[in-house]
Amino acid sequence: MNENQFDFLLSLIENDIEKQMTQFRKPISAKERLVVTLRLLATGESFRSLGFRYRVGFSTIKAIVLDVTIAIWKNLKDIFMPKPTKEKWKQIAKTYSDKWQFPNCVGSLDGKHVMLFCPNNAGTSFYNYKGRHSVVLLALVDANYKFIAVDVGAFGRNSDGGVFAESKLGTSLATNTADIPADTLLENGGEPMPHVIIGDQAFPLKPYLMRPYSKEAVSNNANKKNFNYRLSRARRTVENAFGILSARWRIFHTDIEVQPEIVDNIVLCCCCLHNMLRNDEDDNIFLQDLPNGVPDNFIAFEGIRNNSTRAAFVIRDKFCDYFSSENGSLPWENQ
Q1: Taking residues 192-215, what's their average pLDDT?
Q2: Which cofactor does it need (predicted)?
Q3: What CA–CA distance (Å, rounded) separates 104 from 94?
Q4: At what angle do helices 260-278 and 58-80 cross, to 10 degrees?
Q5: Above 60 in pLDDT, residue 21?
Q6: How far apart are CA 166 and CA 83, in angstroms?
Q7: Nearest CA among 57, 137, 141, 131 for reference residue 105
């Protein structure tokens, strides 16, 4: 983050994090509060270490981080992560088609388990399938590695399909209240098809959510194998977004040492800052450095059994047929 970006961020949140001076002591300034918080997020340094570094109490550091992360989410979400309109969905779909050759795609979906220390009196609620404590970050990402929507806070023990189904995003898609555009023709011909999001095997196949064919289905079927390639290629966007997020904010390389509700604020704050910095043309995170850059503490979702409707299978098969047709195939696929 450069000086101009820092000053811009401070101007947005200063009124929410500045404390009044009292007759007993001078408060920590808004600028210093933001510096402390950004250092925590960028380095993953412990709260206790930050307390020694800035000569303030452990509880004061926690209070500062809570105030600042809440203020960042409150003031940045409508600027850098607004709820998409119908026109915005259309722009996202066009960019996915232009950059990743997956028409009618309005986002790539994935989730990660964000590690935390065992909360007090939590029992097994946060205990995930890897045997560690976590909360779930569910994210929908556009073709330029920016977060369209995020949902955080689900218990780590919850099934990944259940996390999506119970999220605001999952509910809005299932009830057709997300303002997704009407069916449109696929590029270069074909019949009208719905706009869809794409995910991996961790998510159920739905009319609005495409996932890959199983290994068994593609073993002797070139068209289905090609569909999986096209979907996997477009899904790089969400993997790259998580890679950039964790490369820039190294707190995701640690087990976060605060209560889950504060972890939620930290994660939401980092996602907003990610979008703010992605808007900057000087963003210098290099994607070629990212394939191995997602930390072990950023655990992927576990695959689930498919439980899909007939309509979802039909839609996926139509995409599959289109990708292998003369109009929809790519020149290099058969080389």
Answers
A1: 94
A2: a divalent metal cation
A3: 7
A4: 50
A5: no
A6: 18
A7: 141
What DSSP assignment string belongs to 78-117? HHHSPPPPHHHHHHHHHHHHHHHS-TTEEEEEEEEEEEBP
The answer to whether 165 and 196 are in contact (CB under 8 A) is no
Helix (H, G, I), strand (E, B) or coil at 139: strand
Q: Identify which of 75, 70, 94, 103 has the alpha carbon closest to the alpha carbon of residue 315.
A: 103
List the single range of 125-129, 215-219, 234-238, 254-258 with lowest mean pLDDT. 125-129
Structure tokens at 298: 């950023």
Q: How far apart are CA 225 and CA 215, in angstroms?
A: 9
**244 and 284 in contact (C-beta within 8 Å)?**
no
Q: Write down the pTM of the prediction.
A: 0.88
Cβ atoms within 10 Å, residue 58: 14
Q: Which alpha helices (H) appear in 182-289, and where do they start and end?
A: 215-218, 222-248, 260-278
In three-state secondary structure terms, 271 is: helix
Average pLDDT of span 4-18:
95
